[in-house]
Design a protein that fits this description.
It contains 8 helices and 13 strands. It is of the alpha/beta class. A hairpin with a 2-residue loop joins strand 3 (44-47) and strand 4. Bound molecules: adenosine-2'-5'-diphosphate (A2P).
Length: 331
């Protein structure tokens, strides 16, 4: 079965990657519509050897026969246009944070909670990039050993802030002033991603905490997080410290992760092998290594988790959700 697909924000960093991933994964497209702002309207983009003209997004954009719309044009546009699309019978898969914590909207990582797509009412949310890569390895371990507490510490790439983040790093390395971040990102580490909340956490930290609970469907989990922007272009790295209810052998953790869909274990310290941001760039999988017992607590483990934030953290996961919609005959 082939479907009609719209890409909203087709010229953006994630939007362009949607097109690459759709092409690579042979997504069954009948008609493709590309939408962006007035600035890009009229430009052409090549997809599978054919040129497509970018249309300006407006209230009539979804009057056409569209089955699925992949949105990545920012939260404000998602808030405004996803309900319009939904009203016209389109199923929206939204990469922004606009709808993620809405209780009527599924928040889906296909390796973790694929069945949740069946509960959609016209909108499905794609989680935050840092959350996605963490829950892929955590789900299988949670099923087996039951997670009690998680401590997330992240080292996040500037591409998570879009083109402006990349520009701040590249210009900063040349000695020019930062425009986007409140401090230089070149040669620095900023413990500040998204805005600060009243509780002293950043919004990015609260996204990781709240979204993990929703995706794993376990609101009793104890989770804390510190999220940090580092001078890396692509791929987020994360230290994930987990305490389980049950006892385990480190060997079992290796076995489970080696057999978890979407996870690649890279862990051979003797040969200096562990997941690296540069190696994960352009890949769709989540790389896990430095797996070792946390001997400071009962039943604890440490892991180093790396994935391409634009791919698995955004475009790949969104396209995988669209694949589930087709697979389950929901469009
Ligand atoms: P455009 O390139 O025409 O500005 P990024 O997250 O990489 O900054 O990309 C944002 C995406 O959202 C781009 O495709 C951008 O299109 C699109 N966008 C931004 N503002 C609007 C708007 N007012 N209407 C439609 N698309 C928009």
């Amino acid at each position: 079965k082939k479907v009609n697909v719209a890409v909203v924000g087709a010229t953006g960093m994630v939007g362009r990657t949607f097109l690459k991933v759709l092409e690579e994964r042979d997504f069954p497209i009948e008609n493709l519509y590309l939408m962006a702002s007035k600035r890009s309207a009229g430009n052409t983009v090549n997809f599978r050897g054919k040129d497509y003209i970018i249309e300006e997004l407006n209230e009539n954009s979804f009057d056409k026969d569209i089955d699925i719309a992949l949105f990545s044009a920012g939260g404000d546009l998602s808030k405004k246009y996803a309900p319009i699309a939904k009203e016209k019978g389109v199923v929206v898969v939204d990469n922004s944070s606009a709808w993620r914590m809405d209780k009527d909207i599924p928040l889906v990582v296909p390796e973790v909670n694929p069945e949740d797509v069946k509960k959609h009412n016209g909108i499905i949310a794609n989680p935050n990039c840092s959350t996605i890569q963490a829950v892929v390895p955590l789900k299988a371990l949670h099923d087996k050993f039951k997670i009690k507490r998680i401590v997330y510490s992240t080292y996040q790439a500037v591409s998570g802030s879009g083109v402006k983040g990349i520009t701040d790093l590249e210009e900063g390395l040349k000695g020019n002033e930062n425009k986007l971040y409140p401090h230089p990102i070149a040669y620095n580490a900023l413990p500040h991603i998204d805005v600060f909340m009243d509780n002293g956490y950043t919004k990015e930290e609260m996204k990781m905490i709240d979204e993990t609970k929703k995706i794993l469907n376990d609101y009793d989990l104890k989770i804390t997080a510190t999220t940090v922007r580092v001078p890396v272009l692509y791929s987020h790295s994360e230290s994930v410290n987990v305490e389980f209810e049950k006892e385990f052998e480190v060997e079992e953790v290796f076995n489970i992760l080696e057999n978890t869909e979407g996870v690649v274990v890279v862990d051979n310290p003797k040969e200096n092998k562990y997941p690296l941001a540069l190696d994960a760039e352009g890949k769709n999988e989540v790389f896990v290594g430095r797996i070792r017992r946390d001997f400071s607590v009962d039943n604890g483990i440490n892991m180093w988790v790396v994935a391409d934030n634009i791919r698995k953290g955004a475009a790949t996961n969104t396209v995988q959700i669209a694949e589930l919609l087709v697979k389950y005959n929901l469009v």
